[in-house]
Amino acid sequence: MKAQAFYTLFRKHFNPKRSKKVAWAYPGTGKNVTQKQFTKVIDDVILNMSKEAGYHNLKEVDVGNRRPDYKWENENDEIFIEHENIFDTVFENEVPNLLNCDGSLRVLISEITSEEKRTKLRNYVLEKLKERKSGKNFEFLSVLGTDTLMNDYNAWEAYSYAPAFEERKMI
Fold first, then answer.
1. SS3 (DSSP) at 18
2. Above 90 in pLDDT, residue 37?
3. What kind and span of H or E run contains 167?
4. 3-state secondary structure of 86
5. What is the pTM of this model?
6. Which of 2, 3, 27, 69 lies at 20 to 30 Å from 166 by C-alpha?
């Protein structure tokens, strides 16, 4: 699966008309959803996406000395996904986890709502990818919540990084 297809599927499933859990998180009442509750929403979305895409979804699988949140697999492909809603741990855990996995697509999903923090993360991902000198070709996808995410389920940005590791904003 390519980054664009994953992001399109994510946008389709992260929708209150499609998911009861997303609908619960976005009732239009200004509900404050905790990080733990939001993680359960993401879990549900990821599971439903994997089913539709024809992948077997494994949660927290050991990969070497790493443990990514999700591993999707089918007979032809592996995709690794990390979800994190705490900004500092993205640098310490999630990005290194994904870079040490071997799938054709590695996906970081995070609700980093500050533009400054999103830019810092995007620059960090690009820098780490450019440092890689070997390994299989893969795509890296960052799906980042924007400052209005807690009020608008559509408030996501995505950036794909291909083997040339140039950043492209996705629509």
1. coil
2. no
3. strand 167-170
4. coil
5. 0.86
6. 69
